[in-house]
Design goal:
Length: about 450
């Protein structure tokens, strides 16, 4: 039966339907986090159009309210009265709850440091296990005291100082984003020196886009961000949170894998969101993509099935797409390889293992290939890299899988029900509420 049981599971049998239709894009979680935080740190009240929400977005709203902002919803709008900078930084410890949102945690830490607050942070799920280095060490070197990594609750205090912050570019773009949003608030000038390759660069571009819109000037020279101090965000207009390409990708991939076209409306084809690369990836797989403008800012994107074939994919800038493009690969003729997957291990689950586990249990042929010299049994010097290898089949068998409390794993399994000859049961299925509370309802609407 296609509903969520009291045991937090759902069984989907969409294979016998010709899934087709139109799904409206939900708001971009990436843009929403940044707009909300910066508006709460701004000079004056503002209004942000944010049609919809999720657990992660609500976590960010709750944190900013706990720090002194007043954010309330009025229909599709968020009315934001910012934090008062006159509030004493030496007052008693405050408490915030970041839920399971890695973005919220990593954006909050520099913001709290810039405000000079004494704050206790509560985390849930796997979040306490996810790394905070090198942001942790850089903030400690700039007058911020913090609990030992892994502590929950996690305590932070001290007035963060301006200066040079050195961050490796291949760990988490969220560290760089957190600093980009907070360092302008400090009195002195700062630099963020990014070492090595800057992976997930599109997420940093989203941050720079929002900062520009809020009057913050940041320059970039050879991997270094140069930040003038004393800049407070200013909201001069109503901002509209654009549609989310990361979540739209699940339904666009359904259009490629199924028997009939699927459309997602309300997307910005010129977005800074890196996950709009899903269109190029689906084209390369052999699906057909068309884009028709909705109005002057958004478009409806339709993906139609084609003769899918295996391809080679570099996931360095699109880690969140790996679960669903692995699903497409599972029913594409030939072999697909997905490279640069290392950072998937520190998401809501170890997504290298949970993608393999999920697809395998549903009948896919997928494995991790490690770059090992067989003669010495020693991995190469390329960061112990491995890649996913997926050999496609015409259809999958179906079965029972656990979401591992990971929203993208749950959504991937649900989409795979459309190409599985037997039902797909997902336990811990409510994980989707982290980013897409109405996901199952939208999927089932395509079976009518």
């Amino acid at each position: 039966m296609n509903n969520i049981s009291e045991e937090n599971s759902i069984t989907l049998d969409t294979f016998r339907y010709n899934c087709a239709g139109n799904v409206p894009a939900i708001v971009s979680k990436s843009y929403a986090h940044r707009y909300i935080i910066l508006a709460a740190l701004a000079k004056a009240p503002s209004r942000i159009i944010c049609k919809g929400t999720s657990r992660d977005i609500e976590a960010t709203i709750g944190c900013m309210n706990s720090l002194g902002a007043d954010i309330r919803r009025d229909g599709d709008a968020l009315i934001i009265n910012p934090i008062s900078y006159d509030r004493a930084s030496t007052e008693a410890s405050e408490s915030i709850d970041v839920g399971e949102s890695g973005s919220t945690l990593r954006f909050m830490l520099p913001a709290i440091g810039a405000l000079g607050r004494n704050v206790s942070i509560t985390m849930h799920g796997r979040l306490p296990e996810r790394p905070l280095s090198p942001l942790y060490e850089e903030m400690e070197e700039h007058n911020v005291s913090m609990s030992e990594q892994g502590s929950n609750p996690f305590h932070i205090s001290g007035q963060m100082t301006s200066g040079d912050y050195t961050i490796a570019g291949n760990i988490s773009s969220q560290f760089i984003t957190g600093l980009l949003m907070s360092l302008p608030l400090l009195e002195g000038d700062s630099r963020i020196i990014v070492t090595g390759k800057m992976e997930s660069r599109p997420y940093i571009d989203i941050t720079l886009d929002v900062l520009r819109k809020m009057g913050i000037t940041i320059t970039e020279e050879a991997g270094t961000f140069i930040i003038k101090g004393g800049q407070i965000p200013f909201v001069s207009e109503d901002f509209v949170v654009e549609g989310d390409w990361s979540n739209a990708a699940f339904f666009l991939c359904l259009g490629a894998m199924g028997k009939k076209p699927v459309t997602v409306s309300g997307l910005n084809p010129l977005s800074e969101q890196g996950d709009r690369k899903i269109l190029d990836i689906l084209n390369r797989f052999g699906a057909f993509v068309s884009i028709i403008p909705d109005d002057d800012k958004t478009s409806s994107v339709t993906v139609s099935p084609g003769a899918l074939k295996g391809i080679d994919i570099d996931a360095a800038d699109i880690p969140d797409l790996v679960p669903i493009i692995s699903a497409v690969a599972a029913v594409a003729d030939g072999t697909t390889t997905i490279r640069n997957i290392e950072r998937l291990r520190i998401k809501e689950s170890d997504r290298v293992q949970t993608v393999i586990d999920t697809l395998s249990k549903l009948g896919a042929d997928i494995r991790e290939v490690k770059t090992v010299d067989d003669s010495t049994n020693i991995k190469d010097d390329n960061d112990n890299k491995s890649y996913l290898e997926i050999r496609g089949k015409k259809s999958l068998s179906g079965g029972t899988v656990d979401s591992h409390n990971d929203h993208r794993i749950a959504m991937t399994a649900a989409i795979l029900s459309a190409v599985s000859e037997g039902p797909v049961t997902i336990t811990n299925c409510r994980a989707v509420e982290k980013s897409y509370p109405n996901f199952y309802e939208e999927l089932l609407s395509l079976t009518n």
